[in-house]
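A sample follows:
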Amino acid sequence: MKNSIKNLTVFVCICTVITVLLAITNSITAPIIEKNQNASVNAALLEVMPEGKDFEEVDLTEYELPATVAEVFRETEGQGYVAKLVTAGYGSDMVVMCGVNADGVVTGAVCTASNETLGKEKTYGEGFTGKNADEVDAVDTIAGATKTTEAYKNAVKDALNTAIILGGGSVDIRTEEEILADNLNAALPEGEGSFEKWFMVEQLDSVDAVYAAENGAGYVFVTGEQFVGVKADGTVVTDGVTAPESFAGFVATIQASVLEDIDLSVYPDLEATVVSAKKTASGSYVLETKGAGYGIKGGDEYHPASNEYIRVRVSVTPDFKIIDCLTVSEAETDGLGDACADESFYGQFAGKSEADYTEIDAISGATLTTNGYIQAIERAFAAIKVLNGGAQ
């Protein structure tokens, strides 16, 4: 019993000594570690604000800032702010650090982390130094990486807006989706805020997009930056619209549009590449075709990634001009090739013809996906020639 008590006493003493030593060590090393961490953070901040002296983190809970803003640091001598922003190009989680001085001018921007494969986004930020909010859009977009570089531009804009807000100013920080929803609702209040984008099967001159109210109240036509609301009976409700009768005609065209199914069994050579084909009374075609992206590598050879094609819906006028385009399904790589399902990619084909449909911005790092999509469009043009009585 005495030995047990003795052993326990020794054990407690040892633990006490170790605890004291750890506390002493921590009291010595903690300030050093904190100093080194602060120095590391300051070094990153100084990269985009070289004239800065010291920085303090801003409590973001007090402000309504753009969704991309993750952290903000204030330069303690009033030289401006550095924002850490998390955005997405064709990949995901592209992290951009951007400094903005007290005059609202970018002092530096750098991508510190990215899943993009282009590589140019690492130095792309250099082009924003010295630019203000009105000059950001003028920075060149990297060919073949439109989405990546546009995301970078938007991050820089968000940093500039953040500096304004923290300085006591006010800016519109709505997302593109929120702005679209507000514009649709303002153009046709009777739609009660619920709209679905209509896949255009007929060419409507000067119309970029059509949104149908889900309650059947009418349509909103987008022409450039104008949103025109039209009731289901053809009455234009948006003020100041030039030639309102043309929009009434558009509604009539939409409502009269009938798609006639084409029996593909009559065209056995098309069945392997064309999922469905329809034709309108005006002679336009609506086809769903298959393209071999990364999921199916090299023509029609199966690839173990997914064994699935990219399926594309495309509407084409009788003179081979693309009216609309949409990705029906895809099984491409997450965060890379699956960008073919984003409207920013497939929307590029609208308005293209057989002569220039390949002239689009490719998906960065996803050549097989891009080529597969182009193949699907090519097959649509080829199918129309067959359906018109020509050879494939």
Notes: The chain has three domains: 1-173, 179-256, 260-387. Residues 119 and 364 are 10 Å apart (CA to CA).
